Amino acid sequence: MKEETMKSMLSVLSGLVIGTSLILGFASCYSWRKAAGSTGEETRGALPPKPLVSKQDTVEVEVLPPARSDTSHMVTMKPAESVIETWKFTVQIGAFESRENAERLQKLAEEQLQKPVQLAVEGSLYKLTVGEFTTKEEAYSYRALLQKQYGSQYSDAWVVPSKK
Fold this sequence. Notes:
With about 160 residues, the protein is α+β, with helices and mostly antiparallel strands. It has a domain at about 85-164: 2-Layer Sandwich (Alpha-Beta Plaits). Strands 2-3-1-4 form a 4-stranded antiparallel sheet, with helices on one face. It is built from 3 helices and 4 strands, in the order αβαββαβ. About 10% of the residues are buried.
């Protein structure tokens, strides 16, 4: 039974499609004939008539020089200077929780190295640094010199960057 229902539905649908196509075909022929005018002439393949060309009036145009703008109120801007952060490098020779221990090594290191040793407080640590170098390589070279000359006394020294 389902098969018969399907067949009848298909035949109804195909009839609707064919009918719709015929109606649309006739309607388009009618609208084309109506657009061409109801003269009864055959209009298939005819092109619409060309518009008539008429003379145009001539207009004189006066060309003016470009207008000058008033720049007296304008402000000239200088390009922003580029900000370059410069970094220095130093060799940290110790970090202590006790201020007394840091000051004791600071005094000893200044006598040994014949250079000023800086004491900086960062959080709960007292850090000792020596030297100020423009490149990392110079700082590493100085650290190697300390380790070579004084052995284990500065074996834990390391290079640290600092903004200057």
